[in-house]
Amino acid sequence: MENICLTLVKKLVHLANLSKDEEDIEVYTYGLLTFLYTLIPLIVLLIIASFFGKVYEILSWTITFLCLRKHSGGYHAKTPRQCLLYSILLGTSSLLVCANLPLVSINFYFSSIIINYIILVFLTPTTNKNFTLEVQLQCKIKITILIIIFSIFYLFHPNLQPYHLYALFCTSLLCIAQKILKC
Q1: Is 175:119 a contact under the CB 8 Å cutoff?
Q2: Within the chain, what is the greatest distance between any pair of CA atoms?
Q3: Is residue 133 part of a domain?
Q4: What is the DSSP letter of 74?
């Protein structure tokens, strides 16, 4: 995919009469790769979800997961291709798990939110030897996660609750994996 993006960027740079500086081309190529590695799992998940008639559900899971994941961190795949595969597998698993869950009781629902939030409070934002944050910024991130959790759970339709809960669970699981694997 890298070669395709590089070729496409070179052609676009030539057509648009932009700078042909090698560093600029690397930046454009990286941007295009990042965009495609973000877009491809979403498209694949939407196609899979359309077969199940669950497009709104996968969009709901994806929005919740991405909002939480952006602020929490957690396990990251070693390569973009692995990330692509893991993203598709995680999204597809949300369809399979949530389709087989009846609407959960309100007690289970809120208990799960609280347990996963506690996990995220203690494990986020994830840091490693190459990436650390000041305590003040860590507190802001924890508050942001809390706001995201409660706003998402209250703004969406109750039938989508299992998808939000599973997105919260997946985010917590990735934070736990990152802590265990110390990536």
Answers
A1: yes
A2: 61
A3: yes
A4: -
